[in-house]
Write a structure and sequence with these properties.
Layout: H1 2-32, E1 40-46, H2 51-61, E2 75-80, H3 91-100, H4 121-127, E3 131-139, H5 143-149, H6 158-167, E4 172-176, H7 197-203, E5 207-209, H8 212-217, E6 223-226, H9 235-241, H10 248-259, E7 266-272, H11 274-280, H12 284-308, E8 311-317, E9 320-321, H13 332-337, H14 342-347, H15 359-370, H16 377-384, H17 391-406, H18 413-417, E10 424-425, E11 429-434, E12 443-446, H19 450-458
Parallel strand pairs: 1-7, 1-8, 2-12, 3-4, 3-7, 4-6, 5-6
Antiparallel strand pairs: 2-11, 8-11, 9-10
Helix pairs in contact: 2-12, 3-5, 10-12, 11-12
Bound molecules: zinc ion (ZN).
């Protein structure tokens, strides 16, 4: 009897231990299934960074087996990008979709075609007490950043959009576009309303910077950094121009430094803006260099997010530009030999007495900056035919010559001319996610689904209104 009693006791003890460990495990998994919460959210947008552009950059920079840091993120999705009025989106409609959860027409900045103002994810983050920032290599008032903090019927409303972005109280604004922050007649200023927003910013306690060195020493909780009167220079051109512009990674590091101590967290949008511009110009070497700059910035953000544990990082593109594809006969040696952007080459062309670019100047520029020594007459004539056009359009011709020599797979100049977006395509784009809530981003998504998922993960009030 005593022996049986002991066995019974032992069995009871074992059962209790077993059950309590099961209970512990159950409570552990219950804790694990609680909705993931992100204190900070960082949204990185490679403007025009389609799958082909990304593969091209990977092949050149890392080799086929290499991965950019964001390509190691645990979650990825394919994102459709169409606009309300067009199967092919521009940056305005795409950024509106990403920032507000609503489709709108091309050209519109976070408003519906009927003028309805669409609340943005950045505004919702501000309401929730979070600090906010926009970091770009384009003008800060260009379509992508604009859609996060401004509302306007046309993307060309630069003066209004710049004013709205500043008035919105965004804590960190870094990029180009100084012309719309100064009154006409002062420095690079173009504002017609007489506002000197750079002075207003300084009076409100913002650290104001216009060079890389000034940015490095900028201190405080708010920074306005405008490093070019217009969009910032292409990465490849900066050494030749001797500019004092910070890289996207430099600006991103400063944004993190300013925002990371915020008690209630922050929302930061970082855009590699000029991947798109290089792509429009058919400039494969530029796409690679701009993607490199973007990937370095994302790398810094990834390191921060890994250490912080409560930061969601999303990396995506707003649309594909020019349908870049990595063709079989692609000439990687020529690609690596191209030293500057086509636009920079265009600016180096000299005109003859007839007012047209001189053939010998065209040949010299192609040899000096792209290593092309055997330019054909038809190629010279194509560039020469653009003699009276704006430099960026001359750049398109230079880029088209180089793209053809590279055997680059892109939208042809003829098709580009028929395209109101200047060569965007309706191809879907990649999205990568890391951190709390990253698993919400998977499968095939639409760009209107991103904002809602961010809000859910950040546990903030934000309801993309019913209907698109
Ligand atoms: Zn574009």
């Amino acid at each position: 009897m005593r022996k049986r009693g002991l066995v019974r006791l032992l069995v009871t003890v074992m059962l209790v231990v077993l059950l309590s460990s099961v209970a512990l495990a159950a409570s552990g998994s219950a804790a694990g299934s609680e909705p993931a919460r992100a204190k900070n959210v960082i949204l990185c947008i490679g403007d025009g960074m389609g799958f082909g552009a990304l593969q091209l950059a990977r092949n050149v920079l890392l080799g086929p087996e290499g991965k950019f840091a964001f390509e190691t993120f645990p979650n990825a999705a394919i994102v459709t990008t169409y606009a309300l009025d067009n199967l092919v989106t521009d940056s305005a409609a795409a950024a509106t979709a990403i920032a507000t959860g609503h489709k709108t027409n091309n050209g519109m900045i976070s408003v519906l075609p009927d003028g309805t103002v669409l609340p943005t994810i950045l505004e919702a983050m501000q309401k929730a007490g979070k600090a906010t920032g926009l970091v770009v290599t384009n003008t800060i008032y260009d379509a992508t950043p604009a859609a996060f903090g401004a509302h306007w019927g046309t993307r060309g409303g630069s003066e209004e959009i710049a004013g709205q972005l500043f008035d919105a109280g965004i804590d960190v604004l870094l990029g180009g576009g100084r012309d719309q922050f100064l009154p006409s007649g002062k420095g690079d200023g173009k504002r017609k309303d007489g506002r000197d927003i750079m002075a207003e910013a300084a009076a409100k306690g913002y650290a104001v910077a216009t060079t890389k060195d000034e940015l490095a020493v900028a201190k405080g909780a708010r920074v306005l950094g405008l490093f070019h009167k217009s969009y910032m220079n292409y990465q490849k051109d900066r050494a030749y121009l001797g500019t004092a512009e910070p890289s996207l990674a430099d600006m991103t590091a400063k944004a993190l430094e300013v925002l990371k101590g915020t008690k209630d967290g922050f929302f930061l949008m970082v855009e590699g803006s000029r991947i798109d511009h290089a792509a429009h110009a058919g400039d494969a070497a530029g796409v690679v260099a701009e993607t490199d700059d973007f990937a370095r910035a994302v790398g810094l953000l990834y390191e921060f997010a890994k250490a912080s544990g409560d930061t969601l990082v999303i990396v995506t593109a707003d649309h594909d530009t020019m349908g870049f594809s990595v063709t079989e006969p692609l000439d990687y040696d020529l690609l690596r030999a191209i030293k500057v952007s086509p636009e920079f080459m265009a600016l180096k062309l000299e005109k003859g007495a007839d007012g047209k670019f001189a053939p010998e100047s065209i040949r010299k520029v192609f040899e000096e900056f792209a290593g092309v020594k055997d330019l054909r007459d038809d190629e010279v004539q194509l560039v020469q035919s653009m003699s009276s056009e704006a430099s960026y359009k001359v750049g398109y011709a230079v880029g088209a010559v180089l793209a053809a020599r590279l055997n680059m797979g892109i939208v042809s100049p003829q098709v580009q001319l028929k395209s109101p977006t200047g060569g965007h395509t309706g191809n879907p784009v990649p999205l990568y996610a890391f951190g709390p809530g990253a698993d919400k981003f998977s499968g095939t998504m639409d760009n209107t689904q991103i904002a809602g998922k961010i809000a859910e993960t950040a546990a903030i009030g934000f309801a993309p209104a019913a209907g698109r």
